[in-house]
Prior knowledge:
Layout: E1 2-3, E2 6-19, E3 27-38, E4 42-46, H1 53-60, E5 68-73, E6 76-77, E7 85-88, H2 100-104, H3 106-110, H4 119-128, H5 144-158, E8 162-166, H6 174-191, E9 194-198, H7 202-208, E10 211-215, E11 222-227, H8 242-257
Parallel strand pairs: 4-9, 4-10, 7-8, 8-9
Antiparallel strand pairs: 1-2, 2-3, 2-5, 5-6, 10-11
Helix pairs in contact: 4-5, 7-8
Amino acid sequence: MHEDGHEIIIRTNELGKTYYRRAAEPVVALEDATFSIRQGEFVSLVGPSGCGKSTILNILGGLIPRTEGSATFRGQETLKPRPEIGMMFQAPVLFPWRTTLQNVLLPIDVRKENRKDYVDRARELLALTGLSAFENSYPRELSGGMQQRAALSRLLLQDPEVMLLDEPFGALDEFTRESMNMELLDIWGGSGKTMLLVTHNIQEAVFLADRVFVMTPRPGTLARVLEVPLPRPRQIPMMKRQEFTDMVFEARVLLNAT
């Protein structure tokens, strides 16, 4: 299936998720969420807290089952984790007893593959994310931004087609966050990967994305898709441009109207 000349890599149709709790009312987190994402596209997902943004990522990543509708990757249901889809979370999830390099190589160890086949590539990724000098450091010796760079390197080592990013920079200071955004854009631009980013930061959503998906409060559904026609490559000074501030304002109005 193609759309505007680009292959549709992810598609949902009337996707829904209800959480059933013992001795409590069920929580309908997601309802009738329908959208598609093209191969190589960068999409941001914004909405109020608790509207089902992370639930969408967890369903697409095969971590939790859907309750209603469908979610597919290349036409196949996302019923379990698959190597073509990788995830990155707000917490970097680094093991404290492993060095930076060892944490990046963790998926290789889990799969019981030959670590020697991947060490050179892991070091290339650490260089790409500015961590070459810290490959033998432990997580406690790294700043929050450096820990997230290590987590990003680990995800890239898996080389997934799709990267699902669940507020990966939400806990970082503004300067570090902007730096990570630029690194992410450089990686995306040079890899052709498809990225779906959940964020509460509207500026970040607009700055990074080709399209912004705006969700309603719980039960979450897609309220509006906002096209971002800003030229690429994007740089921080672009945020001063009138068209950027207009896009951010439009997204904010849409969020407040949901």
